[in-house]
Amino acid sequence: MKKKSFGALLLLMSLSILFLAACNGTDSGSEANGEESGEKGKEEVELRVVTTMAGTDPAGEVFEKKLEQFQEENENVSIVNDSQSADAGTIRTKVNTDFSSDNEPDLMFFFNTVDVQGIIDEGLVVNLEEAEGVDLSGYNSMLEQQRNEDGNLYAAPQTGFYEGLFVNKKLFEEHGIKVPTTWEEYETAIKEFAKTDIIPVAASTIDSYYVVEHYALAAGGNENYTAKLADQNPAWAEGIDNIAKHAEMGAFPEDAATIDLAMAQSIFLQEQAAMIYEGSWFWGQIEESGIAEDISVVPVPVYGDGGQTGDVVGGASSGWFISTKAYEDEKKQKAVVDLFNFLTSEETIIDIAAATGQIPAKGELTDIPDYIATGHDMVKNASSVASPINDRILPEAFTLIRESVPSVVAGEKTGAQVLEEAAALE
Amino acid sequence: MKGDKKYIFLFLTPAFLISGVFLYYPFFENVVQSFYKTDGFFNSTFIGFGNYIRLFQDEVAIGSTLNSLELMLYVAIFQVGIALVLAIMVDSIKHGAAFYRTTFFFPIVISGAAIGLLFTLIYNHRNGLLNEILVSLGFERILWLTEQSSLYMVAIPTVWNYVGFYFVILLTAIGKIPNDYYEAAKLEGITGFQRMTKLTLPLIVSDMKTCLVLAITGSLKIFELVYIITGGGPARSSEVLGTYMYQKAFEDSAIGYGATLAVLMVVIGLTLAFITNKLLKSDGITY
Fold it and tell me: CA–CA separation, B179 vs B266, rounded Å?
């Protein structure tokens, strides 16, 4: 009796596993076998797409609709949208894991920075200029910004971004302080706000991505800003030292060394701080908090030799990649190229850009609020645009710089020492 | 008996398989990775003991190890100590024991991430609970998280988070002591303090040892509270091995070096668990 019960239990478990396996295998089975679709006479194809357009990203909803539209127009194609709203570290790990375990997405929207270099070196994504059927027409200058050091083009951009000094005009007006256009005015604004209950610059020194970048830019303009880390450019060192100098002047929150970026943003959004260094993606949160009309964005005032005020950090650091595996798969090639062309068409790019207010890589946005237009104009009128430092150097080196800022503020290190330590990692 | 062995084997097989696939194999892979220099997941280069040499020269790694050990000390003393005091007190009351059991156990139910966020808001300089109380009482705001204080400030929620766990273990252990012992001692005229020191504590030594080993090894896993409350700062003053390993492996994509830090954590955990077991070795009491 005991043995019979056990046998029945084993049988039940085996059947359950078989049932689950059968349920799960439907899609991949049709993909692997390349079944013929009776009605259309075309092979069924399943494509997996990975992007960061998901979750609270306003682009996620538009992107989902675009995928639905493509599937309606191409009934033989089913798309698995594996997008996830994630911070840079998480999506980087996911993409790297997928590619290194032979489970790469067929199409992905990912950082075209040092983060993707390993994937490119391994030949896991295609050179778009040599790929048959890929349409790269109609792009503005953002396309060229995607060109790899080896001269090839592996990614096609969708939107561009910029970083800058976001200012709360209302607070400046209330306190009779001028929105800074020169470094002196910037320091005056810090001194004046420090006397009030308003924090001059909402910043986290431990999460100081944008602060480090803009202080380096201010100290030497784009000519020095675009230097290599190995150069240990004095302008970068001066920029880091200036953060400590301004911290001493009361520029940042008292607990800047322990709060994260989200907390710094929160201080600005609650109008407890007058300025913040951020990127164009920040507009979404500003709009949500209902203060957008009072906010403007200006370029960091450049005072050092090697540039001028108007130099901007920005570019198009993400793009659409086609995996070599999908492209070389005869069953998938046409579908993946069609989807790529669809997603990088002017219509799709404009629709997605409209949801976020970012600068489209094709065409132009119309009917945008004045505050968004200010950012677009800043880029249009920029004396030069350079990609952020952390897109260009080893992540480990940038983390060291960023995490060392509190030590510089505490007087334990100098900017030059930090750069020396970071350069040694490369 | 022979038939029983077959069932034992059959029922244990899934556990062995799962442990093997999800625990031992990844650990083996982790050890292998620690001998490679990896930029991202690609371009791995075998560097032998290069990561281990770097580990012993890395000031942040050494500082993180010392911070982890310091945190371990606080956890061992206060988590188990407070849990023991609470367990003895709750055991001695006649009414409301269930209420206290639930109250003390409650923090365990809350995730570390939520507690981290909660304490971030408590310590926040500008809008935090502590400073709001101070301001309302007419005092100046205090910077709670400084280089000097940060480790203590993360130790507080860490201790609070797990006190309930050890409290329940020790309360159960006390509850298992036969009442006859106490009744016999009462007839001998034992005082309340003697009851605790001569009877209760000696009879739950093995449970206290278990709690200590769990607290010591568990403290090496401390991650989310530090990550959320201080991010390891200011100026690395509260960096622990867990946060530093995460940073190296996932933020910096230095997988090989991150794996080396993970090996170090395992080695420290095993060594300390072994030492604790040796030091607290005692004959088990059965009743």
Answer: 41
C-alpha to C-alpha distances, B195 to B58, B175, B180, B192, B283, nearest whole angstrom: 51, 14, 13, 5, 21
| B283 contact partners, CB below 8 Å, separation of at least 6 | none
For A206, counting Cβ atoms within 10 Å of its Cβ (0-12 exposed, 13-18 middle, 19+ buried), the class is buried
Cis preceding-peptide flag for B234 (omega within 30 of 0): yes
- Contact residues, chain A, for B235 at CB < 8 Å: 257, 406-407, 410, 412
Residues B80 and B272: their CA atoms lie apart, in Å, by: 16
Chain centroid, CA B11 distance in Å: 31
For strand A45-50 and strand A77-81, is the pairing parallel, antiparallel, or unpaired? parallel
**Of A257, A291, A261, A287, the residue nearest A274 (C-alpha):** A291
Taking only residues 141 to 170 of chain B, the set having a beta carbon closer than 8 angstroms to any beta carbon of chain A reads 141, 143-145, 147, 150
Neighbours of A317 (CB within 10 A): 22
A75 vs chain B: nearest CA distance in angstroms? 36
- Measured between CA atoms, how close is B164 to chain A, in angstroms? 28
Q: Is the pLDDT of residue A23 over 90?
A: no
Per CB-CB distance under 8 Å, the chain A contacts of B124 are 255, 259, 263
Find which of A241-250, A305-314, B82-91, B224-233 is predicted with most confidence, using mean pLDDT.
A241-250
pLDDT in tens, A151-181: 999 999 999 899 999 999 999 999 999 999 9
Helix, strand, or coil (residue A126): coil
Task: Give the mean model confidence (pLDDT) for residues A24-44.
Answer: 48
Mutation for testing the B interface, residue in A120, A255, A266, A271 having most B CBs under 10 Å: A255
Render B19-53 in DSSP notation, one character per residue: HIIIIIHHHHHHHHHTTEEEETTEEEEE-TTHHHH
Query: Per DSSP, what are the bridge partners of residue A177?
Result: none
> Which is nearest to A88 in space by CA: A118, A110, A68?
A110
User: Which class for B117: exposed (0-12), middle (13-18), buried (19 or more C-beta within 10 A)?
Assistant: middle
Cα–Cα distance measured from residue A44 to residue A34, given in angstroms and rounded to the nearest whole number: 6
The predicted-structure confidence for B196-220, as pLDDT tens digits, reads as follows 888 888 888 888 888 988 888 888 8
Q: Is the ipTM of this complex over 0.90?
A: no
> How distant is the Cα of B271 from the closest Cα of chain A, in angstroms?
30
3-state secondary structure of A385: strand
Residue A414 has which token pair? 């100098």
Tokens of B59: 């000031």
Q: Does B41 touch chain A (CB under 8 A)?
A: yes
Characterize the bridge pairing of strands A159-168 and A199-201.
Answer: unpaired
Question: How would you class B82 by CB atoms within 10 Å of its CB: exposed for 0-12, middle for 13-18, buried for 19 or more?
Answer: middle
A20 pLDDT more than 70: no
CA distance A46 to A24: 14
**Computed from CA positions of residues B274, B275, B277, B278, in that sequence, does the dihedral angle turn out positive or negative?**
positive
CB proximity B30 to A under 8 Å: no
Tens of pLDDT, residues A398-416:
999 999 999 999 999 999 9
CB contact (8 A) between residue A406 and residue B235: yes
Q: A362 in the Ramachandran plot: left (φ > 0), alpha (ψ -120 to 50) or beta? A: beta
- The predicted model scores a pTM of 0.80
- Site of tokens 């003393």: B77
- H-helix or E-strand spanning residue A296: strand A295-298
